[in-house]
Design brief:
317 residues, alpha/beta, five-stranded parallel sheet, 36% helix, binds N-acetyl-L-norvaline, binds phosphoric acid mono(formamide)ester
Length: 317
């Protein structure tokens, strides 16, 4: 595997899930695979889970790991070609990327959307430059439009907890004070459809996601109707995708916050969120602390999804 942004990059999701469960049984079984191989993790944005779980996964595989926080201690990077670089950016991504590639065997990149240019973001301009110019396999640690390591961990978690073959999985928008990317809901929808679940997405009008990711899911604007019979409730905030509101907050309606009344409409559903989560905006204290909350298990499965993906990349070096 030379790149990892989408569920399609895995080849076969069922087989990848089987590999993930094998790894979970013995996460140190492939310690020789990564010997003398180096993972470089490049962060343009903050992270807790991705940073720790991906580093742990690479160490499980016997790899060395280098972490670069681009905004702390590295030169400020220009990303546009053709710019006269007389401002605060000391280096261009077009030199920085092949230089980074020369010190490692695999690269992970975290670079969120910042809503300045929808066309650049939805063409995944930054991570695609890493894929093109680094000479290394590259995986997303959350890119502008996708967070596949998170979605993979979420599907692993659903597989571990589902009580029927085709559970009803509801992705619900919830309010948040700051504009957030569509990456997590995009990937969650894409992966849950690929896993064959009954996927329903609910959000206020204006929050429609890119159909490229939601194809095969049902959109239901009435949150109560959507939640009825749900086996899994996945809450997440995102900002508007559609023009002319790309990246904007259209609603802070607190009636969408997941509380115990919302959960009472479901089929005793499990509660899920990728974290970090703002309590009592997205979900109430009692729901996230309840027995049905899977948030810590999802986060723990990030080690497994990352190890599976890095293993697949090591195997094709
Ligand atoms: C990010 C997001 O919503 O994409 C990262 C989630 C994994 N969340 C925040 O920036 C709070
Ligand atoms: N879920 C997730 O990716 O968390 P971090 O932003 O802390 O890495």
């Amino acid at each position: 595997m030379k790149k990892f942004l989408s569920v399609n990059d895995l080849g076969n999701l069922k087989e990848a899930l089987n590999q993930a469960f094998e790894i979970k049984k013995n996460r140190f079984a492939f310690q020789n695979l990564g010997k003398n191989k180096t993972l470089l993790m490049v962060f343009f944005n903050s992270s807790l889970r991705t940073r720790l779980s991906t580093q742990k996964a690479a160490m499980n595989l016997g790899m060395n790991v280098i972490v670069l926080d681009v905004n702390q201690g590295a030169w400020k990077l220009e990303t546009e070609r053709g710019v006269i670089m007389d401002g605060d950016k000391s280096e261009h991504l077009l030199e920085a990327i092949p230089v980074m590639g020369s010190y490692c065997d695999i690269i992970g990149v975290r670079s969120f959307a910042n809503f300045t240019n929808k066309a650049d973001e939805y063409s995944e301009k930054i991570i695609n430059q890493f894929i093109k110019y680094s000479g290394r396999p590259v995986f997303s640690m959350e890119a502008a439009t996708c967070h596949p390591l998170q979605a993979f961990a979420d599907v692993i978690t659903i597989e571990e907890h589902k009580k029927c073959e085709k559970p009803k999985v509801v992705l619900t928008w919830a309010p948040h004070p700051k504009a957030l990317p569509q990456a997590v809901p995009n990937s969650f929808a894409e992966w849950c459809v690929a896993a064959g679940y009954d996927v329903v997405i609910t959000h206020p009008e204006g929050y429609e996601l890119d159909e490229k990711f939601t194809k095969g899911a049902k959109i239901e604007y009435d949150q109560k109707k959507a939640l009825q019979g749900a086996d899994f409730v996945y809450a997440k905030n995102w900002s508007a995708y559609e023009d002319p509101n790309y990246g904007k907050i259209l609603s802070k309606d607190m009636s969408w916050t997941i509380d115990s009344e919302h959960m009472s409409w479901t089929n005793n559903a499990y509660f899920m969120h990728c974290l970090p989560v703002r309590r009592n905006m997205i979900v109430t204290d009692d729901v996230i602390e309840s027995e049905n909350s899977l948030v810590i298990k999802e986060a723990a499965n990030r080690e497994i999804s990352a190890e599976t993906v890095i293993k697949m990349m090591l195997e094709t070096l």
